[in-house]
Amino acid sequence: MSSNPQQIQITQPDDWHLHIRDGEVMGSVLADTARQFARAVIMPNLKPPVTTVELAKAYRSRIDSQLASLQIKNFTPLMTLYLTDNTSAEEVRKAKADGIVGFKLYPAGATTNSDAGVSDIRRCYAALEAMQAVGMPLLVHGEVTNSEIDIFDREAVFIDRVLEPLRKDLPELKIIFEHITTLQAAHYVRDAAANGKHLIGATITPQHLLMNRNAIFAGGIRPHHYCLPVLKREEHRLALLEVATSGNPRFFLGTDSAPHSKGAKESACGCAGCYSAFNAIGLYAEAFDSVGKLDRLEGFASFFGPDFYSLPRNTQKITLVKQAQSIPHELPFGGETIIPLRAGESIAWSLVSS
Questions:
Q1: Residue ranges, the chain, pLDDT below 50
Q2: What domains can you pick out in the chain, each with its CATH number?
Q3: Which of 191, 223, 241, 283 suits 259 as a labelling partner, its CA being 20 to 30 A distant?
């Protein structure tokens, strides 16, 4: 690949962390995602949360109905369950047998619809031991929620207080540290002892590769740049960009695209989440291009995720061209509208075929 390519072709990527919600808004999210990605790991933080295999089957059925109505045939949702203090080892074994790809750890109160999350990780050890035994990954929202801990420090504190003790107690448990945002997390995953096995990985979002916390306050409060974990200082963005573009297979694509209506974001207490599903792969290409590492995009976007999950790589291809793409100011979202990431701006890379 040339040092300044104008077109690249890569294996079709997957999104290893996606929120699609439920009901009438789901269709527009699925359409945006399936235009770029072949598969996506579907987050279980609905109301009520998806805590059992039966609830996951019902959710998958609703997703399949939406895909059929949209005539989308080339997209596969990968289902997860919401870990709670009461998740049983038997439910873990049922989930593994039914093709559930992982359990999601939300510390109680960490983000949208996480009130039913884990209050103390030690209460989950029976389930986690079963996950270790059957090879079921744990997908971690890595923040503590103690109000006395500064919001910008909660990821780093989580590593010390929760993640490192957990990995010592359950050294064979496969863990994905999701949507990492700090230098500490990037270096922790990069440097974690491998023990000859691929046991810890991390997903990284486009917003955390492209923006630092100044973006929340550029010209006033920018609620559509507010997400959790929150954007951090520039040194953290640069550390994430370094590991994402390094070719290290522990790091892979996960948008954490989190749709909320315009009204829910632009309110007195706005929801956390950036909607990147509309143009995610172009945003990632822009990030990799910014440091001259487009040749590393395919590994990060298309190979390392399925390898970590022990799933086959996709075989179909997509093509991106270096051609400005204007992002709409608003998009339909059920009966309301949603503001996509970089709304009203242009991004440098466009998807032209799949």
A1: none
A2: 7-353 (3.20.20.140)
A3: 241
